[in-house]
Specification:
Arc Repressor Mutant, subunit A; globular; DNA-binding; 2 strands; mainly alpha; two-stranded parallel sheet; single chain
Length: about 120
DNA sequence: ACCGTGACGGTAT
DNA sequence: TATACCGCCACGG
């Protein structure tokens, strides 16, 4: 049983699962929230090695500058853009406006003030 | 055990 | 805004 991977990966994946639909977060942000500041690369590793990672909203994770982390032109690159578009997240030039779609662990109040978009 | 690679990030130039 | 470097750490060869 249990693919266990590692306690850190578990926390990382659990954090990724919390990113709301229509919002995005950076690898470093996820690492910090998971209590692993400075270990953004581990987030990428955890996602890549997550058993059945298909269930996770991995497409909501981007680089710190809002760019897609996959090589431009790759299948994953195209798929991520497609999955984001499906959530109404605009991706222009392989990049998402974090000021607009970035997840800031908002409370319901913040959600009202900021709104999902617009 | 050494070294290159990578779904990263911050700072300097 | 873009490029270059360096710090970071798990893996694979």
């Amino acid at each position: 049983m249990a693919a266990a991977v590692s306690p850190e990966a578990e926390r990382i994946l659990a954090t990724v699962a919390r990113v709301p639909k229509g919002r995005v977060a950076s690898y470093g942000q996820i690492a910090s929230i998971a209590g692993l500041t400075g270990r953004a690369r581990l987030v990428g590793w955890a996602l890549r090695n997550s058993p059945g990672g298909t269930k996770l909203p991995w497409h909501r994770i981007l680089r710190a500058d809002g760019r897609i982390a996959f090589p431009e032109g790759s299948d994953a690159y195209a798929l991520q853009i497609r999955r984001l578009a499906r959530e109404r997240v605009a991706v222009t030039g392989g990049r998402v406006d974090l000021a607009r779609y970035g997840w800031h662990r908002a409370s319901s109040l913040d959600a009202m003030l900021w709104g999902p978009r617009d």
